[in-house]
Design brief:
HTH cro/C1-type domain-containing protein; 434 Repressor (Amino-terminal Domain); mainly alpha; 69% helix; coiled coil
Length: 122
């Protein structure tokens, strides 16, 4: 999953508009964020740094590399996040699992085709 997809998921999870997200990062207009979301620009380090500063609950490992949960767990998991954040994290984890399953299925299908081709060539 690319960073622009993760940013869109974050904006959706925060339940704010792209323009509001951009303004929270100190942008007057949402143009730069729109370009990032559509893959025309990659976010610069200072933009990522602002996101983590403005939204300290965001897991930087997830934002940068797609690893872990979207939101941090501070202290005990039950005290760290409210129910809505836990549900968003669970939805995100299910989304990740579905993506991985689709990729595994695609790989499996390609391997089956290759095995069939090798059997036919004998």
């Amino acid at each position: 999953m690319t960073i622009h997809v993760r940013l869109q998921q974050l904006i959706d999870a925060l339940d704010i508009s792209v323009l509001e997200f951009a303004r929270q990062l100190g942008e007057r207009r949402g143009e730069k964020v729109y370009h990032i979301l559509h893959g025309r620009l990659k976010p610069r380090y200072d933009t990522l740094e602002k996101i983590v500063a403005v939204y300290p609950q965001v897991n930087a490992d997830w934002l940068l590399r797609g690893e872990g949960l979207m939101f941090k767990q501070l202290g005990s998991p039950s005290a760290a996040m409210n129910t809505e954040e836990r549900l968003r994290n669970m939805e995100f984890l299910l989304f990740q699992l579905n993506e991985r399953m689709a990729l595994l299925q695609e790989t499996n299908d390609l391997l089956r085709v290759e095995v069939a081709r090798l059997r036919e060539s004998r």
